Structure formats: C-alpha cells, structure tokens
Fold:
Amino acid sequence: MAVRSDWVISYVQSHRLLVSALKILQIHFSLILLFQNVSVFFNVTIPLSYNLYLQRDQRRILFLVNLMRKLSVHLYAGAFLLSLLIFLSGIFVGQMVDLSNMENLAGEVDSVSQKVSSVHLLLLMEGNSSSFCPVYTSELDSIDSEVELVGHKLSYLEDERNAFDPELKKQYFVLQAESYLLSKKVNEICGDDITLLVHFYSNSDCENCREQGYEILKSRDSSSEKIKLYSFDGDLGSPVADAFKEQYNIKSYPSIVINEKTYSGYKSSSEITQIIKGAE
Amino acid sequence: MDFVSFLNYAIAFFSLFVANVFILLYLTHRKDYLKTPEQTDWEPFISIVLPAYNESIYLKESIDTILAVDYPRNKLEIIIVDDGSTDNTYEIAKQCESNIVHAYQKKNGGKGSALNFGIKKAKGELIATMDADSYLTKDTIHELLPFFTDQKVMAVTPAVKIKTDGSILKELQRVEYLMILFSRKLLSFIDSVPVTPGPFSIFRAKVFDEVGLFDEHNLVEDQEIALRIQSHNYKIKSSMTADVFTEPPDNLPDLIRQRVRWQRGGVRNFWKYKFMINPKYGDFGMYFVPLNFATLTAMFTLFALMAYSVITTPYYVQYVWTELFGMSVGLFTFVGAFVILSSLIFTYLSVQSFRTEKIGLHYMVMFLVFYWYLMITYNLLFIFKEIKREGYSW
Structure:
C-alpha cells in the first residue's frame, strides 16, 4: 500500500466531516422550521387569555374559560425532541471521528511496517557485519518511538472512546515482535547493552495489568539506562503473542520478560528498576 | 455503559434541553418579544419607595432622574426611607423634600423593613420599589404601564441595564445583565419571571394586601416577593423597553460577594417554595422551580465528574496529549459546541435586540469563556458559607 501523506489524510477526513456536519445541520434546521409551524398551530388552541393584543372583552371571556395555569407541554416536548436529535447527531459524529481515527492509525502502522522491513532487509544483506550499527540503532530508535505512540493511541481509543479493532491490534503486535527481534539481533551484532522488556497482559483476565503497564512506563522514564518496551495481550488470539508466550513459558498475567528472563506476578516500578540493575 | 459515563451523558442532555427550551421560546416569540402592549391613557397615582442605607453618593442623582421622568407631577410621590444610615444620607434626603418627595428615617432593620415602612406610607394605586443607586429614564414609567392592562398582572419588571466605564469587569457584567433581561423576557412568555429586581420594580398596591409585605429576613427579598406573587398565580410581566440603570460592583471581591449572596438567598427561596412543584402552578411550578434544583445538582455533579476525570487520567496520556485533541472529538464536543454556539448566538441576540446597545464581539466571547469560572467560584464559595452557617449581611 502506498504511503499517503498525513496532510492528505486529514484533509480528506475533515472534508468528509464537513459534509456530514452540513447534512446534520440541514436536517436540524428543517426540523426547527417544522416544529415552528406545528407550534403556531398549537398556540392557537392554547388559551389566548395571555395574549395582550386582544380586546378587553374577548380577554375577559377567555379568562373565565381558562382558570388552570398554562403548562406548555408542547414546548418541553419540542425541546426534548430537538435535544434528542442533536444528541443522536453527536453520537453519529463521534462514530465517524472514531472511524477516521482508526483509519489514521492503520495508516501509521503501515508506514512503520515499511521502515521495519527496510531495517530487516539491511540486516539480511549485511549479515553479522557491525559497520551499519549506527544506522540500525538510530532507525530502530525512531521505529520504537513511533510504535510506542501507536500503542498509546490504540489504548486511548480503546479506553476512552470504546473503539476497538482486534485486527489492527494484532498487526501492531506483529510490528512490535519484528522490532523486538531486530533489536535483539542488533544488540548481539553491535555489542549494545539495551535492556529489552516484554510485558504480557490480558484485557479479560487480569485486574492489575493496567497498573503494571503504568509501573513499567514509570520505571522506564525514571531510569538512566536505555530500556525498550514491548507489550502483548496474551488472550487476543494473536499468533505472534502466542508464540512468545510459549517461548518464555508465560503461565499467568501480568508477566514480564527482561533480557530473556521471565518474572511473573505484579512488580512495582522500583522492583523493576532493581531487576534491570541486577541483570546488568 | 458505566455510571460515570451515564452521568456525563445525562448532564450533557440536560444542558442541551434547557438551551433548547430557550431557543424554542425565542423562535416562537421572535416577532413580539420587543413589543410593548398598546398604550392607554390610564395614569394612576404612583408611589415610589426608595430605601437608602449610606447612599449619600448616589441618592441625589437618583432622585433627580425620578423627577425627570415623563409623568404628571400630581400623580407621583417619592418616599425616601433612610434605614438608619451612618452618613449624611438623611440630610440629603431632607434637602430634596418637596410636595412630592417625603423623607423618613428609621432605625436600621435591613432593606426589607425599609421597603415595608415606605409601602405602609404609600397612597398610590401602583407602588414602585427601587434602589438608591438606580437611575430612571424619561420613558421608564410609560413603558411599564401598558402591561397592567391585563388585570391578572400584579408586577412588571423593567429592562435593568448598567452603564459602563470601559473596565472589562463592567463590560462583562453588561453582557450578563442583557442576557438576564433577554431570558427574563422569554420566561415571561411562560409566566415564569422569578424576580422583581431591586433596582426598580412596579407593583399594584393591592398585591401587598393579598400576598403580604416584603420578607424582612431574606437575603434576596426582591426574588422572594416575586415567588410569593407567583404562588398566588398572579402574573409578572417583563418590559424590554423601560430602561433602568443600576450601579454594578466595580471590583472582583465585591462582585463575588454579591453573587454569593444571590446564590445563597436564591437557593433558600426556592427551597421555601418547593411546594409549587405541582401542575396547578403551571409552567412555573412544573418547569422553572424544578429546573433550579436540577441545575444546582447538575453543576455540582459536573464539578465532581471533572475532578474524577482529572484524578483518573491514565499515565500514558502525557505521551499523546497533543494527538488527543483530534481524537477526543465526539459526542461531548459536538453537544458542547452546540450549547456554546447557541449561547454565543443567544448572547449576541440579546444584545442586538436593543438597537441602542452595541457590544464588541470580543466581550461576548470573553463573557462565555471567563464568566463560567466566576460562576464556579461563587458556587463553591456559596457551599462553604452554607457549611459554616455564616450569618447574613448585605
């Protein structure tokens, strides 16, 4: 798939949004006009004694006729319907925006995939030669930060917007797996000492996995060492995640693999930092 | 859907609903909201009761504006009641005495007691109450009288505005007063005017015999009497053309003090009249009174929800917050945008209705952006004061 530029994507999305917004506004205004005509009809039937433009006699008669205080039910019904309409439009707009966000993310995943492929190709071509180490390191760093951003956005969409695409997530895991394996290889070839941390979690069967994720991030942020993070949902049915689970003997969640050693159970950020220091 | 999301949706829908009621009221009455009923040649005797407490700065000018009103001298009397001032308010009042201006002095007892003192001395068919720092215009009385043609009308409220001196605080308050006036006019179409403003309001004298005099122990006695009139199913009308100008607080602490007082008094008053939630009180009882309670509840729930969302912000948000703006557009942004846009249009309309009023668009936008924080401030303060069970003071 050709890599489209971000600018083009956002232009196309916003154009689509604009068109939908205009359609919604059209419906909105026609409903207001419709309601207005209906309410004029109702206004005639509701007691006119409160209309000050009538002659005094007419008002006296209608006053006697109407002793109950007016309750403008049609006003509240109309306001309720209008609110419902706007609310539903809002839901519709929300869905549309979520869809476009998902598409954006898919595009980002594709573009990072390309980068990973080129690094992979380079490695295959150069074998165990360490002459391209600086290139590998810098490319992988940029890949990893992009992948992490994609991961955060995916989490955000899942948590806050309830937008979840399992296929996209599996693609993301494949991406992480490639990056992880490449980083391992580069560590060997170039003699780097980068700590590789893999976090295994489950969205369906683990109460402190989210906490564990935050603790890992905190430990990475507060550490002076260079640490690369990867996380996999072991219960999603992703073949890549399942393969890693077997390889590292993952039996429970959360589990962390630091430089090829498996640690199971919840670990706080300080504990994680200890392990990393110890594993040096 | 979890409880927190449900609350968020409920509050969004509620604010949307209230906004739409006002919008529909405007749309159905957009042709006649600026109109005054037909002028008649009815010229009843009017007594203007002017309570004053340490108002030596504004009193003379105020009286001059009353004397400049276009109304026959022999149908007017002005009753100044000095509520035990500690400055020379009474001396100034005594100087203005004439065959239509009478000055009295009494021991300090609060605004309500001063008003009642004056009302008991008044002999007019209509009684107007005003503040010593309000200014009338030439047409004020003539623009208010036609509303009394309907015999069920017991009180009419004028168009209370403020004169500004260019300071931002006053400009923002000016926008606010115009918006309040506009809303009050729209509410009058469903007979839900909840307050006869202290700066100037005009009543039929007999209403005090029927519903009683002002509540002398109330923080916002002008609202309380209006609620009492509503509870007797009488009508209160609102004029958009009878101009009255009042002095607003010119610094932030005074403004906050004033609004906290309004809020405390307001909640107390509506609690006292909660019995009106009954179909026999029509729109006022079934929509407006519950609305006040609902708004208060919604506001505090919203504070709680905002605090909750800040506390539970996920750790990773700091990595993506620049991206989040585009991602977070959805239902709430849409609803929020609608409410804000309609508030802007509403504010704009309320100002433009008065051909004579011109306000820069920037003030209106500033109003919508900053006034919200002011509202939060005095709502929180109001809660603290209630908890401390602080005494009342003007």
